[in-house]
Amino acid sequence: MNILSMDDWDDEEEEFEETTAPEQQSFILGGSLISIGIIVIAFGVGWGLGVSPLTNLNWNWTDLLIGVLAALPLYLFFFLTSRLPIKGFQQIQQFLLEELGPRVEHGKVWELFILCIFIGLGEEMLFRGVLQSWATQYGVIVAIIFTNILFGILHSITRLYVIVATLMGVYMSLLLILFTPQNLLIPVTTHTVYDFMCFMYVMHAYRQQKEAEQPYESE
Questions:
Q1: Are 118 and 31 in contact (CB under 8 A)?
Q2: At 181, phi and psi to the nearest 5?
Q3: DSSP alpha helices (H): ranges in the chain?
Q4: Cys staple from 125: which of 31, 114, 129, 195, with CB 3.0 to 4.6 Å?
């Protein structure tokens, strides 16, 4: 058996961090730029449809708290399904660990949180702020179905994940319309906090997986 000394392991770990740090920075920067691009698209689509993505976006501490609390059931669903012995959910879990794990393993928490803010703003401004608001003229139910079918398709990781994302999108839509006055801040906050908690989960799970796979000294 080939046994690594502590010096060899330190050298390999240092080399690994040097090679993965740029990848992680690229992920955070790239994700932020894409999300900013979605914000720009939201304004463009909103201009074309005559709907401002900022119409229902207002700062309110109470709505901010509602948004934070509303993220907890979503994360609980994510956490529980990740442990179910169901192939579809295991595929989603494996995808997240393989694709996101290496990109967030050494990420700074505040950088990931800022990324999540951009993601939450971009997707909610486009889907709930513009598309759902515009489609409401055809009926609330039609607007919710139309908006979240598109939202689910945007998250085409697996077929099951499309369904899960669609249902989560419906949840976000209800958060917008069930509170009076409507405030896009609620689904934006929920989306942001949920994504952030999922990133933290993936980071922790990936680190645990790596530790379990690390070679160890044996006699």
A1: yes
A2: -75, 160
A3: 6-49, 61-81, 87-95, 101-104, 109-124, 133-135, 140-154, 159-177, 185-213
A4: 129
The SS3 assignment for 208 reads helix
Residues 42 and 162 sit within 8 Å (Cβ to Cβ): no
Q: How far apart are CA 176 and CA 156, in angstroms?
A: 24
What was the pLDDT predicted at 36? Answer: 95
Q: What is the identity of the amino acid at 116?
A: C
Q: From residue 89, how far is each of 7, 49, 92, 93 by CA, in Å? A: 40, 37, 5, 6
Structure tokens at 4: 């690594």
Q: Which residue has the tokens 């720009």?
A: 40
State the Cα–Cα distance between residues 89 and 108, nearest whole angstrom. Answer: 27
What pLDDT tens digit does each residue of the chain (219 aa) get?
Answer: 444 444 443 444 444 444 456 778 888 899 999 999 999 999 999 999 999 999 999 999 999 999 999 999 999 999 999 999 999 999 999 999 998 988 888 888 999 999 999 999 999 999 999 999 999 999 999 999 999 999 999 988 889 999 999 999 999 999 999 998 999 999 999 999 999 999 999 999 998 888 877 765 444
Q: Which of 41, 184, 46 lies closest to 120, judged by CA?
A: 184
- Enter the tokens of residue 43: 């304004």
Sign of CA pseudo-dihedral 9, 12, 15, 19: negative
